[in-house]
Fold:
Amino acid sequence: MSIAPLEPSDIDELVAFIVDYKRERNTDLTEAQALGLRPAAEQVIQSENSYAYKYAAEGKKLSGYMIVHIVGFPMIGGKELYISELFIGADERAKGIGRRFIEKAEEIAKMHNCNRIMLNNPKEYESYKRAFYSKLGFTERVNFANFVKPVGR
Structure:
């Protein structure tokens, strides 16, 4: 089982994985979203405050990835590691890969002296239903709402 940094040479595979993942969830990408995948991935890989990791079984294509960001957070008196994306292909789930990604996130958080790790997990996702994050020590904040406002381009 190999988790490794996502490299610029992995971007085509990452884009294909995301398109397949969205299709699997019956949420096809708009043309604008599809066109934005490559530049967004390139930006994350080049960012000083972001880290991207991939999972690929030996000799196989990319079948999971995680992107994390280090965010200054004055309200908590320090920094937070934010997991913006952690996805694993259907054929590779329940094999310990998600746990390995979280261990990597914890390692990065400690390296940057972060106060905490934060992520969002939709309640309809299997990972939420299985209490995946709770089992790894995460606490659900029931008194917080997650708001999103699209910004036109």
Summary: The mean pLDDT is 89. Residues 31-46 form the longest helix (16 residues). The chain has five helices and five strands.
